[in-house]
User: Which sequence fits this backbone?
């Protein structure tokens, strides 16, 4: 055995001993308190390929392609019912999130080490998740795929996946997130009522956003609520309860966390289920230990305004606007608690958060009185400051053409509008929580016919964006395909037809990245004159971040030296 191999195995062995000695065993032995719950799996009635019903809920796919889920009962009933109704969506979503793991870690030894690492990393999560949510996740996990046992057994794996959103935020420099949200009320809206709009720009591949679920949850304890979610997820990233409390999440600058605690989506879930005012939401958020930095924009029908709760592992702040009826949130903190935070100051300087913040200010100032349609138009906006064309897909735009969903709330009317594919461009489907939660006789067996004719309020829908039918959108789709091919050629170090580069640039001519990627390919293949031209053009466009701009400048300097 070579010295390097021996060293590798010794390190791995020591690592396993270390991991097993750091409180992991308690975490692995922890199970939810299941006494008092009926653990029998419910039956599912298949009405059609897109409609399913069970004793405690139903699932139906609407004509816009959104899955509408209604569930009720205690935590175990909600978990089991959600699992049995959404099992195919659940498996697809797990595959979307975890399929790359088996490709990156094909070795059985490395898979074993990965499992050990995950157990160690998540060793304190069980201490920071409410028992009722652990029970709900346990019920849901009974329908998990058997494909990813090497990651963790089903219950623990689904619990861990609730922290995937937080890790994505911690790694936001990899372009996983860039959410934008705003609120207006009083003299800033057409009828004086609170309106909230948000884009959830969490990107984990196209497949991840294909099957959105609009969940309506009617628990035995707490408030009924809706949220936009996906298979396997009980947390909330965007939602509203029947008290008119809304929550949306925007990532802050985070260091990579060394231990997982309370997933932020379970904090917002708790707020929806148990808060009816902003003060109650603040109390809930303050008592939970999170492991990443996050802004939670909370809207309230009773308070008739919105506030931002800013949480991080070692700090807590609340941001209220003074002498204004307008609130804007991107991806940096604004409260006094963070005014001397170096990470936050660095993020404002280096990221695209401040740019999107100013763009929201600009667009809201153009609207004398905001209404739902104009809020949707802001979420769909693809231009930069002063209407500058910055290329489609640019993260400085409010509509980055990658969002999981866009959403608009009117809390005082208990109405919500959710986007359908593609991105925020499809029809925004309207829902009335009064109609939904008052229209179902809770505690009685759900009627199959209810599952097909209950949830959305079609007369209030917002039409799809005309951009979907444009040549520019077709060109953007082409750009994404060509971009993938060129990046693969760079990564795999193989040659492509030079015309692919010019086609990619022509399909999205204002986007800096089209020229940057072309430049990288040309540089790697020693076409230095052409590479310099591509990077020089990229440098004239609206580059997303300070780091990206510095990278372009470095290539230009290197190429000038070579030439």
Assistant:
């Amino acid at each position: 055995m070579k010295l390097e191999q021996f060293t590798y195995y010794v390190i791995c062995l020591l690592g396993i001993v270390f991991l097993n000695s750091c409180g992991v065993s308690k975490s692995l032995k922890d199970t939810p308190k299941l006494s008092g719950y009926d653990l029998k799996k419910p039956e599912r009635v298949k009405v059609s390929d897109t409609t399913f019903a069970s004793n405690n809920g139903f699932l139906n796919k609407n004509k816009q392609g959104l899955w509408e889920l209604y569930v009720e009962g205690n935590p175990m009933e909600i978990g089991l019912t959600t699992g049995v109704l959404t099992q195919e969506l659940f498996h697809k979503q797990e595959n979307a999130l975890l399929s790359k793991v088996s490709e990156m870690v094909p070795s059985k030894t490395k898979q074993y080490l990965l499992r050990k690492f995950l157990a160690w990393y998540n060793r304190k999560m069980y201490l920071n998740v409410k028992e009722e949510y652990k029970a709900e996740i346990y019920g849901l996990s009974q329908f998990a795929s058997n494909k990813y046992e090497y990651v963790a057994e089903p219950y623990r794996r689904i619990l861990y996946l609730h922290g995937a959103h937080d890790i994505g935020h911690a790694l936001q420099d990899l372009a996983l997130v860039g959410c934008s949200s705003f609120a207006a009320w009083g003299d800033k809206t057409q009828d004086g009522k609170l309106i909230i709009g948000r884009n959830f720009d969490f990107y984990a591949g196209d497949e991840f956003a294909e099957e959105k679920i609009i969940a309506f949850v009617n628990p035995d304890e707490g408030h009924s609520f809706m949220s936009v979610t996906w298979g396997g997820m009980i947390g909330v990233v965007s939602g509203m309860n029947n008290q008119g409390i809304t929550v949306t999440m925007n990532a802050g600058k985070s260091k990579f966390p060394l231990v997982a605690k309370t997933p932020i989506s379970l904090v917002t879930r708790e707020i929806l289920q148990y808060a009816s005012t902003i003060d109650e939401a603040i109390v809930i958020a303050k008592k939970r230990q999170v492991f990443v930095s996050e802004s939670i924009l909370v809207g309230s029908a009773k308070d008739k305004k919105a506030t931002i709760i800013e949480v991080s592992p070692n700090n807590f702040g609340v941001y209220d606007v003074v002498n204004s009826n307008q609130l804007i949130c991107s991806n940096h903190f604004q409260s006094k608690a963070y005014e001397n935070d170096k990470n936050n100051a660095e993020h404002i300087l280096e990221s695209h958060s401040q740019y999107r913040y100013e763009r929201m200010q600009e667009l809201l100032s153009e609207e004398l009185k905001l209404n739902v349609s104009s809020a949707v138009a802001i979420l769909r906006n693809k231009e930069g400051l002063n209407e500058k064309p910055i290329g489609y897909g640019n993260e400085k735009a409010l509509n980055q053409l990658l969002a999981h969903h866009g959403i608009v709330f009117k809390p005082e009317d208990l109405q919500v509008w959710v986007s359908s594919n593609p991105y925020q461009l499809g029809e925004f489907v309207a829902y009335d929580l009064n109609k939904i939660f008052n229209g179902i006789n809770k505690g009685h067996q759900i009627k199959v016919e209810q599952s097909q004719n209950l949830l959305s309020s079609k007369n209030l829908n917002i039409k799809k964006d005309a951009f979907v039918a444009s040549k520019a959108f077709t060109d953007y789709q082409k750009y994404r395909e060509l971009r993938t091919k060129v990046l693969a050629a760079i990564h795999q170090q193989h040659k492509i037809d030079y015309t692919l580069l010019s086609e990619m640039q022509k399909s999205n001519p204002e986007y800096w990245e089209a020229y940057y990627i072309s430049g990288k390919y040309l540089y790697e293949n020693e076409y230095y004159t052409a590479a310099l031209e591509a990077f020089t053009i990229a440098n004239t466009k609206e580059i997303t971040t300070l780091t990206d701009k510095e990278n372009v400048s470095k290539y230009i300097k290197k190429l000038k030296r070579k030439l």
